[in-house]
Amino acid sequence: MRILTLIALSISLSFLSATARAQTGNARPESSSTLSTSSADFSEDQTFSRFQRVTQGMKPPKATNAPDPKFPDLAPDAEAHGTVVMLVGISAKGRVEAVRVLRSDEPAFETSAANTVKKWKFRPAEKNGHAVPVQVTVEMKFEK
Fold first, then answer.
1. What's the pLDDT at 25?
2. Where does the pLDDT of residue 32 fall: very low under 50, low under 70, confident under 90, or very high at 90 and above?
3. Residue 5: inside a domain, yes or no?
């Protein structure tokens, strides 16, 4: 299985929005990730109810370690590109504790995207100087 490189990883977060991209010397983009602090409404979901939304006055989380996803084996008739959007719960210690796929173009990308984001580490979000658990949206794009 071929390991993909992330194109961009620099997080610039602002009130309710952020992007993260990692850059390599590879001229052909094969995958990229976007991190956003705006999130879907999962107020009824017990898993994500313990993670706050990033709001004004909060210092958003920052990725400190974001390993590359693996490009999955695809069926011969499957598209060689796709996007996976996930809701991610980040603990007050900067660990990914919950992942939910919100949207995916190709089911084969979902497992690789979710397994990869579970390995990411963050400097935790802060509110009033204290680390707090938050939820963010991560978008991973795959292209071969």
1. 30
2. low
3. no
Q: Say whether pLDDT at 86 is over 50.
A: yes
Q: Tell me, yes or no, whether 1 lies in a domain.
A: no
Which 8-state DSSP code applies to residue 114?
H
CA dihedral 92, 95, 97, 98 (to 10 degrees): 100
pLDDT, tens only, 76-85: 888 889 999 9
User: CATH code at 58?
Assistant: 3.30.2420.10
Helix/strand/coil for 123: strand
Quickly list DSSP for 88-110. Answer: EEE-TTSBEEEEEEEEES-HHHH
Mark residue 29 as left, alpha or beta (left: phi above 0; alpha: psi -120 to 50; beta: remaining): beta
- DSSP code per residue over 57-94: TEE--EEEE-PPPBPPP--TTS-SEEEEEEEEEE-TTS
Q: Please count the structural domains in the chain.
A: 1
Residue pair 51/60 in contact (Cβ under 8 Å)? The answer is no
Helix (H, G, I), strand (E, B) or coil at 2: coil
16, part of any domain:
yes
C-alpha distances (whole Å) from 56 to each of 35, 64, 106, 126 are: 17, 22, 35, 11
